[in-house]
């Protein structure tokens, strides 16, 4: 009988589904990295595990952003900071804000002033920052150092998820411009990580807050929140709105939570680092005033590194206490420092900093166009907000009606919010939609010259805003050049930055971002110059601000509208209905993929900017351009007399020569060199890890071997010669380790371990045999006794009352006899041997015998449980015949004998063959009563070979 077709299809489908699931499990997990100036946090999302923070090697939830190089070894985090206390120039810290900066940037100058012991040199090709290592003369760019931290972050994530991870969402400060964001992406590329998105840290924190509070949002009125984030390096404040908005699904629209950033304010140098530096300098001045030594502590880099570390500890303690002692042993010239510092002294020391606490909040309110009364709550984020004075000034200066919000995890909010975004963007997870719209912090404009008509007059420069201040993104915009019919060029750069301080504008670096030259414009126009019915719509440049806040020039094209004769056969009504229905069933993804221009502007008029307070009205059109857009997509009826004419759109692609003017990260050969450098360092780290593991294994083996040989069980299992040989080998390896073994490679250490293992393995095996043999023999004896009891009961019962044949009974009896005889003989021989000799009765052979008797008993018990006795029928009374009674009885006896014999033969054929030994070794349990119906599989102990292997690993 064949299997039904539907069952085959169902089984195949289930198999494919399960197979795909199993394959994808190994590439599903994603991570987020919140890499800050001082700390790095990593979060993961993996199958079956919700968002969680990945722990580092010390089982801590955050890791210092620090990389140190000492004696050819690379360390991270706390280990790196430990190196930095003794060798400050070897530990690189606070390098995140040097991404995308030229050597003459004010941020670089400030960094040199704060950390004078670093040797910072210019990159000869890009004039950017390079750290020169004092010991090896190696040079590291900020991108390479960030790549090392990202690589370490992936290691933490993979250890937590138990699988490979190659995709990530990385949080960055909102004030990162095009240069810094591009550098961060390049750092991830060097580390071999695919970046799903760069997300602003305050947006990630707001997302983390919103995903747990969607029930408090509504469709009619948005909820406004302020997120005040003071970190180690800077302070960022964002005004965010939450609202429920209907999705674009035409079939079943649903309400989706929507997050929009309305206003942002920041202070780049207002954070915990500046407070810590001031405390460091304060302690240095106090110590110099004590005149304990003639040397100036500020001139000693190691002493200043110790003071910097102590200042960080003191800052944290004074956040919870009113006073504390700063203590350092052997600060300089073996002189100790012990100075009492009060919270009032700290507040006076940083008075000007605390006066700036409210400034970024005020800037954010101004950018959003809201007042503090409309803000639901001011939510604190960042470790700097734990300082009591910061909270006091916020309450005093903001004058909010609500108390400060402390429900957000100040350290992990950004990492967890970015992890949610990573799960949303990856292909392996389905999460509830939460739409996010960020805001442009630095407006971007296009600058070009009007086409010269009169060569005697200078060209007039025209500026057009492309993305205004606080314009939402991601978003696409189009700028139209109507009058240029020759090849021309234009530039893209930052627009008016009056909302920023003069020094902050300098920190942005180059204000010009790109120089774009268009080639082939004249040739594109000339193709249609002599044709009739041609209407040129100008050169259109398509720009986009993507989810990561990066400006992209997608393409440039000449748009031509051509009037042609329409087909005489009109589209059928049925066809129109079909097209309408197909459009209705478009999914939201297809709708979003439509390349609909967001902004289109002729040369004569400025690009109108979207209102900062409008959440949804991101598409703004000029009246003329709205008409033009209508022409591009629809057939325009010119007049009743021209019904047979229609307008078609023709696009001619224009060649673009795009040159970036801001600081670009390493490219081509330089990029490959950085990738190779990181890969080589990783190989060195792996070799170091292997060496440490091998060394630890060898040292542990020596200690355990000596300890075990002092125990009676192990000592009795070895001869005097073996014991002496093992102890000599331990002494030999120990002496070798003290001389030059600690510098040996992992392969040499492993060979020493193998030499020791060869000597101790026979002794450990004997010890194991002697320890395990009694329990195994006891189990075998129990099984034999149970089998004997079962056999006796069968013998006392007639064969007609059992399902067994005589052959089966004889086979069981023979097997019991052989195993019993073998056991007694082997036990007798084993007892004659000393423990230091290899045993003749091994655990493995006992297990084999036990397995054979258990297998035979299992067969018989299974047959017994499935057997149903036949009911005896009453003998029928037959009419007397000519035969005598004796002859009748004789015939009946012959018939019965024949029947029993035939049944025995049949059962013998059906019964499986019973083997003396089995290649499969199972665990052993005691046999129960002979007639008990138990179908559970007996457990047999592992073979000697398996036990020996496991024991060797556990002992050595």
UniProtKB/TrEMBL annotation:
Name the keywords, alphabetized: ATP-binding, Chaperone, Endoplasmic reticulum, Nucleotide-binding, Signal
Composition-biased stretches, type Polar residues, lie in 609-628
Q: Which ranges are annotated Basic and acidic residues under compositional bias?
A: 943-956
Q: Name one GO cellular component term.
A: endoplasmic reticulum chaperone complex
Pfam family example for this protein? Answer: HSP70
Record-level GO BP terms: endoplasmic reticulum unfolded protein response
The source's domain of life comes to Eukaryota
* Any GO molecular function: ATP binding
Q: Where are the transmembrane segments?
A: none
Chain segments carrying region Disordered: 595-628, 869-956
Q: Does the keyword Nucleus apply?
A: no
Q: Which InterPro entries match?
A: ATPase_NBD (IPR043129), HSP70_C_sf (IPR029048), HSP70_peptide-bd_sf (IPR029047), Hsp_70_fam (IPR013126)
Q: Where in the cell is it found?
A: Endoplasmic reticulum lumen
Q: Where is the signal peptide?
A: 1-27
Q: Does the keyword ATP-binding apply?
A: yes
> Gene3D superfamilies given for it?
1.20.1270.10, 3.30.30.30, 3.30.420.40, Actin, Chain A, domain 4, Substrate Binding Domain Of DNAk, Chain A, domain 1
Q: Which PANTHER family does UniProt cross-reference here? A: HSC70CB, ISOFORM G-RELATED (PTHR45639), HYPOXIA UP-REGULATED PROTEIN 1 (PTHR45639:SF3)
Give the family per the record. Answer: Belongs to the heat shock protein 70 family.
Q: What is this protein called?
A: Hypoxia up-regulated protein 1
Q: Which organism is it from?
A: Aphis glycines
């Amino acid at each position: 009988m064949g299997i039904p077709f539907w069952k085959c299809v169902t089984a195949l489908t289930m198999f494919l589904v399960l197979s795909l699931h199993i394959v994808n499990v190994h590439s599903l997990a994603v991570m987020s990295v919140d890499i800050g100036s001082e700390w790095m946090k990593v979060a993961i999302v993996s199958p079956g595990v919700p968002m969680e923070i990945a722990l580092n090697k010390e089982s801590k939830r955050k890791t210092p952003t620090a990389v140190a190089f000492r004696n050819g070894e690379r360390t991270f985090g706390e280990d790196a900071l430990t190196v930095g206390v003794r060798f400050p120039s070897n530990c690189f810290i606070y390098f995140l804000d040097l991404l995308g900066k030229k050597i003459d940037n004010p941020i670089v100058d400030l960094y040199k002033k704060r950390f004078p012991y670093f040797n910072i040199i210019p990159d000869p090709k890009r004039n950017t920052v390079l750290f020169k290592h004092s010991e090896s003369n190696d040079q590291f760019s900020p991108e390479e150092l960030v790549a090392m931290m990202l690589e370490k972050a992936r290691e933490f994530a993979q250890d937590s998820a138990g699988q490979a991870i190659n995709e990530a969402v990385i949080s960055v400060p909102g004030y990162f411009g095009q240069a810094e964001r591009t550098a961060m992406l390049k750092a991830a590329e060097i580390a071999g990580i695919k970046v799903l998105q760069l997300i602003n840290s305050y947006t990630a924190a707001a997302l983390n807050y919103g995903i747990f509070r969607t029930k408090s949002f509504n469709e009619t009125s948005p909820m406004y929140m302020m997120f005040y984030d003071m970190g180690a390096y800077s302070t960022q404040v964002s005004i965010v709105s939450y609202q429920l908005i209907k999705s674009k699904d035409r079939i079943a629209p649903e309400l989706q939570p929507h997050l929009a950033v309305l206003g942002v304010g920041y202070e780049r140098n207002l954070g915990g680092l500046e407070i810590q530096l001031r405390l460091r300098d304060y302690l240095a001045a106090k110590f110099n005033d004590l005149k304990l030594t003639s040397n100036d502590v500020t001139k000693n880099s190691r002493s200043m590194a110790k003071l910097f570390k102590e200042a960080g500890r003191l800052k944290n303690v004074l956040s919870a206490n009113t006073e504390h002692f700063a203590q350092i042993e052997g600060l300089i010239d073996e002189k100790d420092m012990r100075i009492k510092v009060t919270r009032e002294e700290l507040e006076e020391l940083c008075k000007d900093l605390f006066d700036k606490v409210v400034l970024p909040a005020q800037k954010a309110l101004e950018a959003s166009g809201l007042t503090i009364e409309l803000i639901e709550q001011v939510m604190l984020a960042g470790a700097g907000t734990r300082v009591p004075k910061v909270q006091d000034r916020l309450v005093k200066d903001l004058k909010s009606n609500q108390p400060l919000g402390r429900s957000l995890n100040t350290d992990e909010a950004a990492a967890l919010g970015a992890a949610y975004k990573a799960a949303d963007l990856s292909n392996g997870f389905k999460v509830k939609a939460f739409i996010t719209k960020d805001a442009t912090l630095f407006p971007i404009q296009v600058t070009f010259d009007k086409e010269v008509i009169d060569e005697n007059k200078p060209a007039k420069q025209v500026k057009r805003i492309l993305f205004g201040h606080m314009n939402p993104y991601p978003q696409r915009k189009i700028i139209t050049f109507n009058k240029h019919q020759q090849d021309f060029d234009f530039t893209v750069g930052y627009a008016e930055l009056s909302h920023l301080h003069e020094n902050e504008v300098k920190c942005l670096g180059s204000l010009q971002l790109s120089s774009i030259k268009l080639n082939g414009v004249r040739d594109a126009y000339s193709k249609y110059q002599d044709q009739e019915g041609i209407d040129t719509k100008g050169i259109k440049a398509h720009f986009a601000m993507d989810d990561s806040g990066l400006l992209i020039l997608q393409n440039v094209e000449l748009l031509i509208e051509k009037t042609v004769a329409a087909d005489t056969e009109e589209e059928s009504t049925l066809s129109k209905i079909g097209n309408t229905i197909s459009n209705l069933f478009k999914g939201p993804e297809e709708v979003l993929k439509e390349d609909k221009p967001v902004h289109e502007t002729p040369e004569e008029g400025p690009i109108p900017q979207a209102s900062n307070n409008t959440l949804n009205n991101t598409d703004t059109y000029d009246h003329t351009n709205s008409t033009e857009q209508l022409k591009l997509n629809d057939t325009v009826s010119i007049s009743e007399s021209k019904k047979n004419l229609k307008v078609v759109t023709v696009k001619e692609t224009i060649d673009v020569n795009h040159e970036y003017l801001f600081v670009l990260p390493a490219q081509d050969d330089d990029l490959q060199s950085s990738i190779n450098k990181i890969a080589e360092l990783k190989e060195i780290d792996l070799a170091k890890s292997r060496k440490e593991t091998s060394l630890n294994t060898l040292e542990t083996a020596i200690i355990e071997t000596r300890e075990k040989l002092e125990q009676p069980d192990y000592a009795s299992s070895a001869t005097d010669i073996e014991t002496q040989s093992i102890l000599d080998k331990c002494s030999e390896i120990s002496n070798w380790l003290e001389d030059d073994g600690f510098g040996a490679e992992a392969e040499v250490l492993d060979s020493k371990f193998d030499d020791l293992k060869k000597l101790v393995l026979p002794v450990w095996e004997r010890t194991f045999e002697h320890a395990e043999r009694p329990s195994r023999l006891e189990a075998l004896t129990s099984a034999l006794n149970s089998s004997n009891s079962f056999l006796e009961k069968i013998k006392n019962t007639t064969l007609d009352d059992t399902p067994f044949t005589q052959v089966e009974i004889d086979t069981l009896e023979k097997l019991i006899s052989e195993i019993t005889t073998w056991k007694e003989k082997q036990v007798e021989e084993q007892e004659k041997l000393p423990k230091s000799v290899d045993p003749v009765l091994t655990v493995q052979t006992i297990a084999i015998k036990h397995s054979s008797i258990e297998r035979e008993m299992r067969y018989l018990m299974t047959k017994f449980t499935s057997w149903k006795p036949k009911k005896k029928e009453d003998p029928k009374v037959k009419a007397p015949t000519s035969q005598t009674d004796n002859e009748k009885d004789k015939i009946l006896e012959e018939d019965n004998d024949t029947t029993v014999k035939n049944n025995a033969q049949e059962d013998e054929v059906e019964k499986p063959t019973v083997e003396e030994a089995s290649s499969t070794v199972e665990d052993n349990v005691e046999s129960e009563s002979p007639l008990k119906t138990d179908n559970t599989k007996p457990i047999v102990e592992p073979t000697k070979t398996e036990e020996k292997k496991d024991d060797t690993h556990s002992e050595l």
